[in-house]
Amino acid sequence: MSPSLQAYRASLLYFTNDPAFDEHATQWHSDGLLLVQDGRIQAAGDYATLAATLPPGTAIEDLRGKILCPGFIDTHIHYPQLDIIGSPAPGLLPWLDNYTFPAEHRFQQPEHASEVADFFLDELLRNGTTSAAVYCTVHPQSVDAFFAASHARNLRMVAGKCLMDRNAPDFLRDTAESGARESEELIGRWHNKGRQHYAITVRFAPTSTHEQMKLAGELAAQYPDTYIQTHVAENTDEVNWVKELYPDARSYLDVYDGYGLMRQRALYAHCIWLDDQDRARMAVTQSAATLCPTSNLFLGSGLFDFARADAARVPLSLATDVGGGTSFSMLQTMNELYKVARMGGTYLPAQRMFYLATLGGARALQLEGTIGSFTPGCDADFIVLDPQATPLLARRSATTDSLEEQLFALAILGDDRAIAATYSAGVRVHQR
Q1: How far apart are CA 18 and CA 360, in angstroms?
Q2: Stated pTM of the model
Q3: To the nearest whole number, what is the mean pLDDT of the chain?
Q4: Cis (ω within 30 of 0) for the bond into 194?
Q5: What is the arithmetic mean of pLDDT over 49-68?
Q6: Which of 146, 257, 310, 353 has its CA 20 to 30 A from that of 276?
Q7: What is the dihedral of CA 190, 195, 196, 200, to 10 degrees?
Q8: Packing angle between helix 176-190 and helix 210-222, nearest 10 degrees?
């Protein structure tokens, strides 16, 4: 062990599997010790066991009363929509026309894109989110601005330029050829540069022609370690629109499948209006559903069906979907996720919600063993949760008599104030 060893004493929480399918998945050390060296997890376990292994004189940061857990992973969010969060609209399509597209127009200006990217990343870190799958705009300069800001902070982020060559304002359209060319140039410039990863980003099927979808599929085949991100089956009006545009496809999801866009590292936002054949296909291809409860409620899109998704073993993760989503806080997003599940007849334990926000996100990104856990060798991306962050949360925490009750209180009553600190690659990047 070198002098760069960092040691943190607190309660530790992480997962080795989905608690819905493995009763031993939750790892909890009420008096734990987390050891970090050179930006990676070296060990995590009981304080009484690990403290004896430390070199004499090792400084231990005492965070007793707090909970350390892996940083949250937000698998679907739009950084250009930062300034339109909380905008009123009667549904998804009018919201896009009236707010989203005009806001995205400004991202042709690199200075504007850079300023928003910095604020956006500050907000993620303040809420304990250390990795995210991020939509930029159609403008390559919006992607450059985002990755430059993320790379400068040494954050692990996934992002990509939107592909959209129809059914959008002229100022937001590319062409099938220019979109593919610019995406490939951005892959060369940013994919796997430091901790940055590129996502081939089809906005959604209605805003791409057959030719653009075909070229996106070819890029996905040519660069199999890139990500794919898009939207599917969010809203019934959207589903009907796709049926008109792609009459030969069996379903909305089948449109993407037909162009080779379903595989590992493919992220599908919403997945509300799928059928069992769609869900089976997601499981077979290991395409992940990114659950966006706050935006689904805000836009009146519908309720995700947990029972059918779990029966098919669809890979699931949690996402805020800002700016249709109404909060950067993954704790507040858990709050809404719980209610969405209850309205559909499913009970979600808090431990599973924390899994979806950590290891579930890492698995969706095919980054298990890199982020989302405290297993040795993982990036030291972690957060300090404060169960006494507010008077009400402190009062409720004082009366909890199990881990499940404590985590549930954090999910229902917590927000950005419950994030005492955020660490990325072992460096503290936010302090409340």
Answers
A1: 7
A2: 0.97
A3: 97
A4: no
A5: 95
A6: 353
A7: 110
A8: 20
